Amino acid sequence: MTTVIRVIVLALTVAVSAVSTQDFQGVATYKTQRQIDIKIDSTQMNSEMHTRMMEMMKKQFQKTYKLTFNKQESLYKEEVSLEKPQAAMGGEFQVVMVGNGGGSDVLYKNTKDNRYSDLKDTMGKIFLVKDSLDQIEWKLESDTKYIGEYQCFKATYTKMVEKPRKLVDFDEEKKEDDEEEQEPEMEERTVTAWYTPQIPVNNGPTKYQGLPGLILEVHDGKLTIICSKIVINPEDKIKIAEPTKGKEVNKAKYDEIMDKKAKEMMERYRPRKGREGESISITIGG
Predict the structure, then answer these.
(1) Which of 125, 126, 186, 207 reaches 20 to 30 Å from 3, CA-CA?
(2) Cα–Cα–Cα angle for 254, 111, 24, nearest 5°?
(3) What is the DSSP letter of 258?
(4) Strand locations in the chain (E)
(5) Are 15 and 7 in contact (CB under 8 A)?
(6) Which element (helix H / strand E) includes 250?
C-alpha cells in the first residue's frame, strides 16, 4: 500500500504541475446502466409483452450524462435526446414509474465547501435539495488499469443498503395485516471505483467523490457508470452555475416526501378485485 500511495503522490505532482499555470477545467461524458430482474407470473403476462417490458425498462436505465468541472465545482446533468413516442403496451397492463424528471435534473457539487445542490423535477414539482457531501471512507487498492489513455487506480468502500424489494406483486388476496409497513432488510455492499490522478480533481459522476483524481468508473450493486469521453480545457470556457430555483429542502426531508409519494402511487395502482385490467408497479433496487 505504501508503494501505491507513493505512485499516486508522484502522479498527482506531475499532473498538478502540468496544469498549475492553466485555468483548469474539463468535461467528462459518462454512460450508465442498471441491471434489472423482473419476475412475472406467466398467467399475468405473455412472453412477447414481457420481452417488450424488459427492453423498455433497460432503456430507462441506459443513459448518458455530462460532468462539467473545475478544481472545486462541478455540474452533472443527463444528456437527453428527442425520440419518437413509444406505443403503449396494451390495454391489459400499465407500467407505473415512480421517479424524477430525469433530464431536467442538475447536480451541483462544491468539493471545497463540501456541499451540493441537487435540482430535481419530481412528478412535476421542482425541488432544490441542499446538503453536505457524504464523507466516503475510500480504501485505496493496489490494482491499476487503463481507461482510454488514462491510468486508473482502484478504490473501494463498504456501505449498508436496503435489500431490493419485490418488484411485482399480483396477489389480489393480500390481507391488510400483511400490508403493514415493515422495517427494510439491510445488507452490506462493496462499491468499486477507478480514478485517475492524471486529472487532479477530487470529483466524479453523481455523488461519488473524495479520491485523489477524477473518478472514471463506478460499480455500485447493479449500477455501472463508465466514462466514455474526456475533454480537458476546452476552447469554449465552461460556466458552472449553481441551481437556485425550486422548493429548498435537505436530503432527509426530500427522501421523506419521495417515500410518501411512492406509497401513494403504489396504492393507487395496486391490483384490486373487480377492477378492469391490471397495473404493474415496479421498484428497482440494488
Answers:
(1) 207
(2) 135
(3) H
(4) 25-34, 63-70, 73-78, 95-96, 106-110, 115-122, 125-132, 139-147, 150-162, 186-196, 214-220, 223-232, 247-249, 280-281
(5) no
(6) none
184 SS3 class? coil
Question: Which grid coordinates belong to 76?
Answer: 452533472
Name residues whose C-beta falls within 8 Å of residue 164's C-beta, 6 or more positions apart in sequence. 283, 284, 285, 286
Sign of CA dihedral 64, 113, 155, 283: negative
Q: What is the pTM of this model?
A: 0.77
* Per-residue pLDDT tens over the stretch 117-157: 999 998 889 999 999 999 999 999 999 999 999 999 999 99
What is the maximal distance between C-alpha atoms in the chain? 72
Tell whether the torsion through CA atoms of 90, 94, 99 and 100 is positive or negative: positive
- Among 77, 78, 123, residue whose Cα is nearest residue 96: 123
Q: Coil, strand, or helix at residue 135?
A: coil
Q: Where are the domains of the chain?
A: 2-281
Q: How many CB atoms lie within 10 A of CB 46?
A: 13
Q: 273 burial class (0-12, 13-18, 19+ CB within 10 angstroms)?
A: exposed
Task: Please give the order of strands across the beta sheet that includes 125-132.
Answer: 139-147, 150-162, 186-196, 214-220, 223-232, 25-34, 63-70, 73-78, 106-110, 115-122, 125-132, 247-249
Nearest to 114 by CA among 46, 32, 181, 207: 207
Q: Phi and psi at residue 143, in whole multiples of 5°?
A: -70, 145
47-100 pLDDT, tens digit per residue, is 777 677 666 666 677 899 999 999 999 999 999 865 554 544 444 444 444 444
